[in-house]
Amino acid sequence: MRIGHGYDVHQLVAERQLILGGVEVPYSLGLLGHSDADVLLHAICDAILGALGQGDIGKHFPDTDAAYKGISSLKLLRHVVDLAAGQGYTIGNLDSTIIAQRPKLAPYIGEMVDKIAVACAVSASRINVKATTTEELGFEGRGEGISAHAVVLLQRVAED
């Protein structure tokens, strides 16, 4: 088995959709980035890539490549999961945390878990997503951005 940790942060700005965990969350601000800027999925991708010893999301999907402009981060996650599968690994479990003062994310977490599980080709029981605030401390607490952490355990695929 292999373990990886991922972290990402994006700035909140006007005139962007807020996409977290592959889910559009209604809010007046969205995350700034070259892709859809899904901070949660980016942290998950980095955790998987880290467990594989394959660098980070910027190495695989550079923001200088027009092919990734506005791309759904679910597509990036599927690609990273395929890389893991190509090396004989599947997700044993994934634990993640979104750090945001606003908006309240609890109503969307179930849908995020389901979308992540489908992209990772595993049961939703292997995926955990949490959300927390910072009690108005730091850039997340001031509403300037959102960050996310993810930890993944990769296991060798059982052969029949």
From TrEMBL:
Its cofactor is a divalent metal cation. It holds the Pfam family YgbB. Residues 1-154 form the 2-C-methyl-D-erythritol 2,4-cyclodiphosphate synthase domain. A divalent metal cation binds at D8, H10, H42. The record marks H34, T133 as: Transition state stabilizer. GO terms for biological process: isopentenyl diphosphate biosynthetic process, methylerythritol 4-phosphate pathway; terpenoid biosynthetic process. Its EC number is 4.6.1.12. 4-CDP-2-C-methyl-D-erythritol 2-phosphate binds at residues 8-10, 34-35, 56-58, 61-65, 132-135, 139, 142. Involved in the biosynthesis of isopentenyl diphosphate (IPP) and dimethylallyl diphosphate (DMAPP), two major building blocks of isoprenoid compounds. Catalyzes the conversion of 4-diphosphocytidyl-2-C-methyl-D-erythritol 2-phosphate (CDP-ME2P) to 2-C-methyl-D-erythritol 2,4-cyclodiphosphate (ME-CPP) with a corresponding release of cytidine 5-monophosphate (CMP). Homotrimer. This is 2-C-methyl-D-erythritol 2,4-cyclodiphosphate synthase. The lineage of its organism: Bacteria, Pseudomonadati, Thermodesulfobacteriota, Desulfuromonadia, Desulfuromonadales.
